User: Which sequence fits this backbone?
């Protein structure tokens, strides 16, 4: 699982990128949007979430596979074709540009360390939640990953993880 703070920071630097304008009409969202669906990737529908006010969505590389563009349904039922603008294969992270403008983003955990056994919920594009916890690991898996008790995904991945205070802690 990848901490949420890194997705916002990685938009600023690193990874592979390409610039491609989104051709659809701008959609403005007033409420906090927790998740969006991602279709057109490798294995079916996955989940993503907004990491910038100008519509950048984070999801996993697994969710999009080798696609250069994916479809991102907006909360009002319209869909937008979103180009993959940055990919970070080492982190299994992809950033997608959409034509969505947000007023607010979700609250993101600012501390980098999540305690062992911390309760969390992974949320899908449909709003379905899966309760889990950070599990203890004897392996040093790096500061940008944390192990959970999830052993089966509810969709193709990219699910945001929230702590008990409904704060985004990772993906």
Assistant:
């Amino acid at each position: 699982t990848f901490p949420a703070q890194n997705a916002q920071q990685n938009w600023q630097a690193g990874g592979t990128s390409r610039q491609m304008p989104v051709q659809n009409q701008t959609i403005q969202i007033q409420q906090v949007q927790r998740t969006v669906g991602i279709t057109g990737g490798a294995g079916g529908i996955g989940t993503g979430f907004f990491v910038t006010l100008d519509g950048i969505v984070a999801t996993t590389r697994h969710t999009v596979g080798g696609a250069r563009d994916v479809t991102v349904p907006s909360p009002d039922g319209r869909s937008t074709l979103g180009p993959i603008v940055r990919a970070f294969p080492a982190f299994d992270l992809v950033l997608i540009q959409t034509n969505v403008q947000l007023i607010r983003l979700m609250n993101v955990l600012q501390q980098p360390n999540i305690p062992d056994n911390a309760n969390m919920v992974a949320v899908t594009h449909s709003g379905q939640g899966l309760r889990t916890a950070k599990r203890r690991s004897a392996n040093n898996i790096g500061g940008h990953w944390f192990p959970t008790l999830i052993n089966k995904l509810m969709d193709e991945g990219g699910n945001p993880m929230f702590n008990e205070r409904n704060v985004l802690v990772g993906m």
Notes: The first helix runs from residue 4 to 10. Residues 5-23 have pLDDT under 50 and may be disordered. Helices lie at 4-10, 61-64.
